[in-house]
């Protein structure tokens, strides 16, 4: 998500304060429906163990979910924002594993969020199709 200039937020706040009370309430109700966690691609569960490397170290974890833009890996480790990650993903809906690279963009107590890098785009395009097939398989069960 891109950062918004604080000046714009301040201008919107001033305009909102000038609204009549009934319209201010409507605006607040509308804002309450906005998603704070907007995804660029739908995420699907990925119930597989994943092997990945960061720096010179190899790690194992579980990918909580995956999309055509990234995934969340549940793993212990001392990872930092901006770390480069290399991984291999396998799917029951695809004959060959996908080798992807990415960057740590989110760090939580239980793991890391990884966004796939641009240089992986040919694999990422294939991944979108694989995820759709994978979703069909898992949603039928």
UniProtKB/TrEMBL annotation:
InterPro entries: PilZ_domain. SUPFAM superfamilies: PilZ domain-like. Pfam families: PilZ (PF07238). It comes from the Bacteria. Residues 39-132 form the PilZ domain. One of its GO terms (molecular function) is cyclic-di-GMP binding. This is PilZ domain-containing protein. It comes from Mariprofundus aestuarium.
């Amino acid at each position: 998500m891109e950062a918004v200039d604080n000046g714009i937020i301040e201008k919107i706040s001033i305009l909102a304060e000038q609204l009549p009370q009934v319209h201010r309430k409507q605006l607040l109700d509308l804002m309450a429906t906005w998603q704070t966690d907007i995804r660029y691609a739908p995420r699907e569960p990925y119930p597989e163990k994943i092997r990945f490397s960061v720096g010179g170290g190899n790690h194992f974890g579980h990918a909580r979910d995956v999309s055509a833009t990234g995934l969340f890996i549940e793993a212990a480790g001392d990872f930092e924002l901006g770390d480069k990650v290399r991984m291999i993903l396998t799917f029951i809906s695809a004959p060959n594993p996908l080798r992807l690279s990415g960057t740590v963009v989110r760090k939580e107590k239980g793991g890391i969020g990884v966004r796939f890098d641009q240089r992986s785009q040919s694999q990422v395009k294939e991944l979108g199709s694989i995820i759709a097939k994978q979703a069909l398989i898992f949603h039928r069960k």
